Amino acid sequence: MDRHFLNLHVLISHSSSCLNRDDMNMQKSAYFGGVRRIRVSSQCLKRSIRMSERYKELFGAPSTRTRQDADLFDHFRNQERFKPYSDALLEYIIRESKMDNKVVTPWIDDEMEKLVAISTEYLREEAISHDEFMALIEKTEKEAIDATENSDKKKKGRTKKEPKNNRLEGLTKALEKGSKEYLAAGISCTDIALSGRMCASGVLQNVGGALSMAHSITTHAMEAEIDWFTAMDDLKEEAAEETGAGHLNTQEFGSGVFYRYASIDMRLLTENLGGDSARARETAKGFAELFATVVPTGKQRSFASYSLADLVFAVRSPMPIALHNAFEKPVRATKTGGLMQPSISALAEYWEKIHLGYGLDEESALFSLHDSALEGRMAPFSKLLDWIGR
Predict the structure, then answer these.
(1) What superkingdom heads the lineage (predicted)?
(2) Residue range 113-140: average pLDDT?
């Protein structure tokens, strides 16, 4: 059976912290196994990874995602090198967006602004990657210039009844060709290849995400604690009638051992990267490093809970398999203290039951700072990453 899923299981311990908060400024949590756990959302962790300095070192600058498409499109139209075929792009957007009932005659100057308004209004409804959008346009440049020159040559034979500027048909075809060539080369942005993108207009390709990531939760029950804090006003006069702090407030915090889980469909990742299997393996290797080392930035100036994973368990499997149920019964600290070792034992025991019980055809490798019942312990961490990259 094809083992094209890479399942990553991570145990990481955080001291007092508040890494992820909700709209009420309360620490995010979840109930699992009948008890409350501290939670870090997958969205929070993914963005922390994507915006980290190490991500830039491994994959280059991340894509810029925006909903400000009107500004993006104006930026594109105002660049001199793109002006010759900006109108063609507008027409292409209209047609691909299936907005034929709103199409106006784009070669009539008076109606061009209407076309701009329709296009940008439609594009506002979705989030796209600025970098990929611009790369797609640049891919079209040569085709568009050639189409413009060919159209200009044919202009001499036109009759007066024909439109004054009918280069749009050729330019639109050029845009289509450039778009297909760009997409055939694969997604240039690593985070889009991993996390995917939904693009409703049809101007850019929908991308199925190769990465699935769970919300991270503690392996044990945890009720958040309250920190009552003050901020002193250094300019308050000592002789003033009003005394005390300049600000009083409370902040939730907690600590615990967190279980992180992510799965990468290596077959889909390779497809998203234009069939480049070597790049797909390097991407998985880099992501595994980030998954084990990147910590969200929430309230870190107050708590400084910068931790690295105690355990990273990588499994090549024919299917995505999470091991949250290893902690459905919340672990308890041992007599000698600590929650990491019982968490490792629970993970090992449950994986063995799943692996043997279902007769799964899997390969696995492990990095751990502790003794573990899991086979394949490796040290240092780089050996595990090399295993993933092979």
Answers:
(1) Bacteria
(2) 51
